[in-house]
Amino acid sequence: MLLRSRSFLPSAARKGMLSLIATTCLMSCGGAALAQSAGASSVDAAPGRVQGKAAPSASTASTRAVTGKPAAKTRNALRTRQSAPIHSGESEGGSEAIVVTGTREIGKKARDSIAPLDIVSHKQLAATGQGTLRDALALLLPSLTTPTAGFDAGAMTDTISLRGLNPNETLVLVDGKRRHNTANIYSNPGPQQGSTASDIDMIPMAAIDHVEVLRDGASAQYGSDAVAGVVNIILKKQAHGLHAQSITGITSEGDGFQQGVYLDGGASLGSRGYVHVSGDFVHQDHTYRSAADNRTGTYQNNILSQPEQTRESVAINAGYDLTDDIQLYALGTYAHRYAQSYQNYRLASSLNAYPAYKAIYPWGYSPVETLNENDYELKAGLRGDFHGWHWDVSSVYGRDYDDIGLINSVNLSTNKATGATPTSFNVQGFNNQQWTNDFDFSRKFTFSGWPHSVNFAGGASYRYEGYSVGTGSPGSLYGNGSDALAGTNPGNAGNYSRDVAAGYLDISTYLAKGLQLDLAGRYEHYTDVGNTQNGKVSLRYDITRRIALRGTISNGFHAPTLAQKYYSALNISPTAARGLIGAGSPGALANGSSGLKPERSTNAEGGFIVEPIRDLHVTTDIYQINMRDRIMPGGNISGATAISAMQMNGFALPADISTWNQSAITANWFANVASTRTQGLDITVTYLTRLGAFGRIDWDAAINLNRTRLSHQASNPVTGAPLLNAASIAYLTTAYPRSKIIFGGNWTHAKWVVGLHEIRWGQTTNQLTYYAPGPYQFSTTHFLEYQNKPKWTTNLDVSYRITPRWTATIGGNNIFSAYPTRVPDGNRYLGAPQYYMSTSQLGINGGYYYFRVNYDL
Fold this sequence. Notes:
It is found in: Cell outer membrane. InterPro entries: Beta-barrel_TonB (IPR000531), Beta-barrel_TonB_sf (IPR036942), Plug_dom (IPR012910), Plug_dom_sf (IPR037066), TonB-dep_rcpt-like (IPR039426). This is TonB-dependent outer membrane receptor. Keywords: Cell outer membrane, Membrane, Receptor, Signal, TonB box, Transmembrane, Transmembrane beta strand, Transport. 8% of the residues lie in helices and 44% in strands. The protein is mainly beta. It has a 22-stranded antiparallel β-barrel. A 5-stranded mixed β-sheet has the order 1-6-7-4-5. β9 and β10 form a beta hairpin. The protein is globular.
């Protein structure tokens, strides 16, 4: 792979001015919803498997006095501020757990959270039986969704979405620090198109203590991307112990075998430090869910399949107390992934004029995209106390490098010109790097005449972002290029970068007994897209010890990624071609493209928490997210216009493309295409039933209702045509489930734990292309409305503690093997994709059954 690189030398940070946005605020509630259990808890009663002791009564969530005293200067306090308690059971969750997401206060307890916050413990993640963090969270949180299947290279990156928005609108943190993004853009049509979010599965599952999910806009606190919420992954920091886990699973169809091995352990660094080392090995095989190919009547076309992948990852987390007031901390993560994804099957007849290839593929061939990915991140920092001031200075450098290849393919032009017969190619290379430097400080003040302390926090950051697109190997570029995915030509390769400087302020206090206020403001300067100012106002009012209200008004933004600005690629199917060209490229500019602007949002949220009777905890939150200038591919040019645009960008097209169905030849580019309004409702409920000598049952239920509507659509300045067609509008508005419900319980007795949960996946609606011969074949203006009906799945797990150290679990997800609604025959390209891949509802694999063994020392 010829990936052109530049020396890593970011320009000087621009000096930013701090701007606090004053806005009216929405009345607010909440206390944290009291957690379910010590073993698997969630502040807002997050659904999932629940183990351990009962959650505290809501009476424990009464308003606590604010003393204003500085935090104790102890080594344990310094470690706690890294992001989570490390020497106590509080790291498991519960209303007494210390949380760090959505607040700048030191030592904030979950029960006092001012915003909706889910805490998912490592035990809860393991109880799902899933080998990846993404898939585990999808079974536990109704507001979180993942792609149904995906295809091409996009299927080989694991992303998540909150509240029906693009993955780019969810910010991922690790121990409170911004995580770098993947370099592998999801370029195929669908609701995830354009996303280069953080791939959370490149962090070892074994390293995770718990996950805090903030369901609230938080750009004023954390910067770009925190529009739908924040996922903060808190890593283990114990200076002792050894944990080992093995998960073996297979689908109900007998394919998709998975094996995961997870190890972690800690040790002391003298009497003043700790080191915790974690590692994963995960392998999953292909699944095959394609219907028969229309051309042959066989099942050789494996386009509808789960990618095969093998992933190894490791994390080393350490801290050392230089003095009683200063701690040095560091983190390093590294992950390698090799994955393969099928392309559409090519008939043997396509090689009749090429005897050399005909000899290799006498029965035809299926090109396979490959991903060879290396991902790492290094963090180092100092934090401490100085005369009541808590300070933290850190530097984080992360990089993701993706080498995209193609095997089992051809380049017919090379064979015709030289007689050579290559079958594998290096086609693309992407590099994404991010260097973030933060300085944060906070202190509580008391003022005469004001009965409550005031927590004052602030900070500044500088971030360098770099993105590189490398050219394909000569074999992938020659003539018409490698079949299925042509190599990136030099005209579409390059190195791009920008600098980001930011500053923020955060002030929180009590206005009266039981009435909390939090104000946040942030200013950011981007060297390529200008300035943004964001503010947030939050309130929480504890009416009684059993009833509270909470609410927030804020604005947010998502700055266009460098990949969204500069990525380009050409995908060629047996009878169709689709080009995604750079927004600033000659072909896009000639057809009305303009520079990308940041997406901007206005968020409003309000809710309440009640405990009507002992052990029954209920939280309800409603929200509205208005987004402007949303980024998706727009333009949708086709035929001769698309051919001309792609040729202007240097793409090599098949020699006979002028004879193809011109509607099957399309191109587009990323643009600010529309404004939307997302409205929703979150409800969580937990209840404990005590059975005396027969143990206990921890019940939980949660629901997310979500709807997005289009409020404005942009037009092409050259042609005046709308930038979106019906299919693209559906990706924005109806491709995510209208609802997701999770409910069930865990029965715990002696050495047994039995969990049973139901998940209802709500309806999605999409506009399908016609592929069958007829007046609308390959039309970009006429579509078939397709409804992926609601589906129910059942998850069951049974655990037995064999000895104090060994536990065995047998379980299954979707044990009755529900599948998505089948796509009509005439709307399947070549007949194979019987389930719709560009949505985020029920997965395509059917049932999944697993056996898990845990060892704890």
